[in-house]
Amino acid sequence: MAGFNKVVHSYEDAMAGLQDGMTVIAGGFGLCGIPEGLIAQIKKMKTKDLTVVSNNCGVDGFGLGILLEDRQIKKMVASYVGENALFEKQLLSGELEVELTPQGTLAEKMRAGGAGIPAFFTATGYGTPVAEGKETREIDGRHYVLEPAITGDFAIVRAWKADRYGNLVFRHTSMNFNPMAATAGKITVAEVEEIVEPGELEPSQIHTPGIYVQRVIKGNFEKRIERRMVRQG
Amino acid sequence: MALSREQVAMRVAQELQDGYYVNLGIGIPTLVANYVPAGIEVMLQSENGLLGMGPYPTEDEIDADMINAGKETVTAIKGAAIFSSAESFAMIRGGHVDLTVLGAFEVDQNGNIASWMIPGKLVKGMGGAMDLVAGAQNIVVTMTHADKYGNSKLLTDCTLPLTGVGCVKKIVTDLAVLEVRNGAFHLLERAPGISVEEIKQKTAGKLVIEGDIPEMVFN
């Protein structure tokens, strides 16, 4: 990886340095916009005791769900985890710890983490179980909860197009949590559909500037659909 | 007769105003999109990062990268915008969304809502519900007035863990339309053929009934 050429050519290089006990922030919403190949590489590496931060935990047999199969996840930070039976089983048996976090708070925790803001006040969750044990404050007559930011040892994201500088563009609603996740990793790895030449991405249309991204790899994606809904055309 | 799911959605749709940005939750709230009154334009916000959500795609239009907050394949209307989850919740937390419609297990007379957790049952998570109830300008809750055993869901105090505090403004149930203010449910309308007496009997929290209560009108 010389200079600003952040492109790597193997998944081993993409995830090099990942160790037991680390925190991994993953982009994606459900199965949309997930870095499929990077998740598969974590499974292959058999890294254990991971804290994984992502809106969801995939489904049985796909996405982050595959990291449950060999019990690689110690703690999951997510807003909604209803989609996999294995998750349920490990949660009930006490093998897996879960920290349920409101979706907007989760996005803002990543954003704040990447922006050097250690914590923020939000009205979300005030008076609910989410606020238990947290500092609260009344500001102009409204109550707020202090929420700490999140950073990760690694962030893994999926993008549509990248250049070798690590500039990223996302496609449709596969953007979701990916831009914030990308800012919040000490090492951010982007798995992308296409790598283009510098200059091909219009500078003002770049979603994630390359300064946040350490490694780029071209992936192949299954792009599995979670709920296929169709109208008659 | 108690309203069907579709009729509840039809009545909620009457709350829509021209130019509203609206977030619809899963279940009955989703159906509201089918009954937007003629002559008004609303923009649907989906909290995974889409403003200007369209109908489900045709077989040819299906795209795995284009989904709604229910993880269903969806389309974007002309003039839609797509953005990150942080931007999406900035809109919600910043009070830019005019109306949120969502379901609930319980609501109480102080506008507290419980919609995400039943102790003893597996908790799947709150998703974006806590952000939405804390942020929207106007929150309408849809639910059945009572559970299948006849127990009221409109309470003095919620018994389940809360989703938000003091945030519910209006409730559309299968029996009635109610407004929540000054620590009480105010009965505004009743479902066709439903008596005030029945609503009274099925409302456990403080209920205020002023004057004649009209029946809901469906066009």
Automatic annotation (TrEMBL), chain A:
Keyword Transferase attached: yes
Family: Belongs to the 3-oxoacid CoA-transferase subunit A family.
Pfam families: CoA_trans (PF01144)
UniProt keyword annotation of Cell cycle present: no
Protein name: CoA transferase subunit A
GO MF annotation: an example: CoA-transferase activity
InterPro entries linked: 3-oxoacid_CoA-transf_A (IPR012792), CoA_trans_fam_I (IPR004165), CoA_transf_BS (IPR004163), NagB/RpiA_transferase-like (IPR037171)
Keywords, alphabetical: Transferase
Annotated SMART domains: CoA_trans
From TrEMBL, chain B:
Keywords: Transferase
The name this protein goes by in its record: CoA transferase subunit B
Keyword check for Transferase: yes
Superkingdom, taxonomy of origin: Bacteria
SUPFAM superfamilies: NagB/RpiA/CoA transferase-like
Pfam name, any one: CoA_trans
NCBIfam families: pcaJ_scoB_fam
UniProt organism field: Rheinheimera lutimaris
InterPro entries: 3-oxoacid_CoA-transf_B, CoA_trans_fam_I, CoA_transf_AS, NagB/RpiA_transferase-like
Gene Ontology terms, MF aspect: CoA-transferase activity
Family named by the database record: Belongs to the 3-oxoacid CoA-transferase subunit B family.
